[in-house]
Amino acid sequence: MSQYLKDPMFLRQIIMDHYQYPRNHELVNENDEFQLHMASESCIDDITVEIKVEDNKIVHTGFDGVACTIATSSTSIMSELILNKSLDEAVLIINNYLDMVSEKEYDEDMLEEAIAFSTVSKQANRIKCATIGIDGFLKLIEKEIAK
To answer: What is the pTM of this model?
Structure first.
């Protein structure tokens, strides 16, 4: 992926693809123990994220609601990245992503398409959009680990 990091059009295409055709864009759990509602106090973003875990592995991710391009696409990408990962692997991926958007050191290879948000920190008002769904996934995973 690193050869494309300098190409803003390629990164924009990733974001727009996940916005127009979001992956895992449905809620299927009947039990809200596995869901978390996330809403922004400063913009339109209002989504619910969910996970399903079996044998310490994330076997389902989903989300639904109303959100901007950045929130929808970042949540879509992360829903794919953590799917079929162990809880510990998912936490590592999410923390790596959060480091990236906070301009800390990160492993770009671990983030795959999420690297499209590598410049989001240049617009501070977009960081919340780029992390709202991801923060929800992390809270659900941490809740599962704490069981």
So the answer is: 0.93
